[in-house]
């Protein structure tokens, strides 16, 4: 799966809807998209950090 690169936090974490930070393993990436190799399921809802 791919997610917007701007949703990936330092250390390859993403912010879940629950407020929890979850670490992901990434593959290919560019300035717009990051491939998520593992760590997220299709049911996880991620949020863009306000930082």
Record the SSE blueprint.
Layout: E1 2-4, E2 13-16, E3 21-23, E4 25-29, E5 33-38, E6 46-47
Antiparallel strand pairs: 1-5, 2-3, 2-6, 4-5
Describe this structure in words.
The chain is mainly β and 51 residues long. It has one domain (2-47). It has strands spanning 2-4, 13-16, 21-23, 25-29, 33-38, 46-47. Strands 1-5-4 form a three-stranded antiparallel sheet, with no helix packed on it. Strand 2 (13-16) and strand 3 (21-23) form a beta hairpin. The chain is globular and about 25 Å long.
Summary tags:
mainly beta, three-stranded antiparallel sheet, 6 strands, 51 residues, single chain, globular
For the record, give the distance between the C-alpha atoms at the N and C termini, rounded to a whole number. 24 Å
What general form does the structure show?
globular
Strand content: over 45%
* Rg on CA atoms, Å: 10 Å
Describe the strand arrangement of the main beta sheet, using strand numbers. Answer: 1-5-4
Number of domains: 1
Structural class: mainly beta
Strand and helix order: EEEEEE
- As residue ranges, the low-confidence spans are none
**What's the tally of helices?**
0
Mean pLDDT: 95
- What's the main sheet like? 3 strands, antiparallel
Quick one: how many beta strands?
Answer: 6
Helicity, in percent? Answer: under 10%
